[in-house]
Design brief:
Blueprint: H1 9-20, E1 28-31, E2 37-40, H2 44-72, E3 77-83, E4 94-101, E5 104-109, E6 116-121, E7 135-138, H3 152-160
Antiparallel strand pairs: 1-2, 3-4, 4-5, 5-6, 6-7
Helix pairs in contact: 1-2, 2-3
């Protein structure tokens, strides 16, 4: 017997948003052997590595929240693997949300803070270059909050209009 587990989508959204505000690592403050305060600023390379890994973590948590919200409305969705949206705002990897779009399996890269969603044909490839979007959804201008965050509910609402519930 498979046990159903309730997902707290609000908690997932809060956790993702908190980490979204901490994408760039802060300098480390400590004391040297003489008790003087020192600040160690991370290297540019380390900052980029940490930012990219945190972006994946934020995207994963946000995608899980969106998938759970869609599921609550009878729409089948699952979190896939990392993907790069060639039309996105950067070349970072984010998690893809797998959905059924008019009978075609599609992947929607979930980039935290993005106000444009694109659905591509599902693929095992990480880079989605070479595939034209099956669907482009522009979220309303006021969707992003003051800190740049776009909630799981806003993403769910935008996607749900284009997806049908499983029968």
């Amino acid at each position: 017997m498979v046990k159903s587990v309730a997902v707290d989508t609000d908690r997932l959204d809060r956790e993702a948003r908190e980490l979204f505000g901490q994408l760039t690592p802060a300098p480390t403050v400590g004391q040297d052997k003489d008790g003087r305060t020192i600040t160690i600023t991370p290297s540019e390379r380390l900052i980029e590595i940490v930012r990219r890994s945190r972006l994946i973590a934020v995207s994963d948590t946000l995608a899980r929240s969106v998938a759970a919200l869609l599921s609550q409305h009878g729409i089948t969705a699952e979190v896939g693997h990392v993907q790069v949206d060639p039309a996105g705002e950067g070349d970072e990897q984010v998690l893809g949300l797998l959905v059924d779009l008019d009978g075609t399996r599609a992947v929607v890269p979930i980039r935290p803070g993005a106000t444009r969603l694109r659905a591509y044909p599902e693929t095992e490839a990480i880079d989605l270059t070479g595939s034209d979007p099956l669907l482009v959804i522009d979220l309303p201008d006021d969707t992003a909050e003051s800190d740049g965050w776009v909630t799981a509910t806003a993403i769910h609402t935008a996607l749900a209009r284009h997806l049908t519930a499983a029968t």
